[in-house]
Write the structure tokens for this entry.
Amino acid sequence: MSTSTSSRRHRILRGVLTVALATSMGATLTACSDTESDAGPGSAPGPAKTSVGASKERGAVDASARAHLAGLAQRAADRGSLGVVVRITPGSGAPVEMARQAAWTKRDHRLAVGDQFRVGSNTKTVTATLVLQQVARKQIALDDSVEKWLPGLVKGGRDITVRMLLNHTGGLGDFLLTPRFLPSLTGQEQRTWRPEDLLAVTPEQDPPAAPGEKHSYSNANYTALGMILEKATGHSLAELIERKITKPLGMKDSFLATNAAWSSGKPHATGYEPDAERLRKILSPTVDLPEGVGFAGPERPGHTVDTEAIDPSWSWAAGGMVSTAKDWQRFLTALMSGKLLPEAQLRQMRTTVAAPEDGGGYGLGLMKVNTPCGTVWGHTGGLPGYSSEIYTDAKGRRSVAVLTSTNFGIKEKAAAAANKALVNEAACLMLGATATSAG
């Protein structure tokens, strides 16, 4: 392969990753049970409010704020999000819950607040929690080298520490950037990837960075952490998640996916992505995507593809969990309120490095995001057909989840603006304020 061809291919894959998968959706926030009868499926949000972060009494969300949020959710669905679940626990009063969707998607599935979603990289917070539990037990040390645990499996592993894996400062690139992996990401190739195989195709960062030099988000970091956890404990990652997280917290609708299957008998959201032609147009301002590169799945209206059957098992410790808004909020509030980690480890988790592309800072598997109404903590996630933003306040007393049934689809201008307005408003309502925009 010529140098120019190789460079072009690398640029293509980097663009694909940067646009929707490896970088977080957290920057959405920094840019400026209800049913459909709440505001009506075609209702529009009211006019833009003149103040951002306007003060209101902390606590229950009033009826007018709920109606306005419902309008924003429906507009987001109609403008490209296709399906949206919003759930807010505001600190007092009943949770705010709503599901909205574009009309044509109802033929596939009627979306509900309790539907299972692929929560993608939110999984990293669970993996990090499990690692820090082992740190508290002195089974793993944050300053342990990767080479100690995974000899010969990670290039430069003698100089990369567990802490660096957790906060993405180890200097590893991402296997999602490799031509060998892209067909699996899009569902065009059916292959079961072992964690060690993913580490074997993980490139260096481009441009290269020494361990500890800078934050650069990479799924390979958490693939390595999953392997370290299994070696340190003698248990599979799925067993650890069930024993240490989901079972103690009563998260009955959450599990680590090992294939494309969903829980038998439990409803799940249908995920969608633009077809190859539309995807190429979406990415054309920044990415030279070849014709025909797109996601596998049945065709749907509006140059859209149903991606719910794409196998996410490759994402494993980096993004393989299935959950619901309620379940994940339960996990995140338990974590941030100190129920899952000792104070020392929670403090380490919240010690961040600069990560402006993530909307603020990145700790140990935890994002610190600056919203128009204040700081929130949590993570974001993205897999083909699914994106999510789930946060709490600093004490874990309030939480918000916005789940969306597309990932690349909300990169189009109108969809991105509507999604931004919805996430900003939901996060601000969680914090006891409002921040609406015309979107």
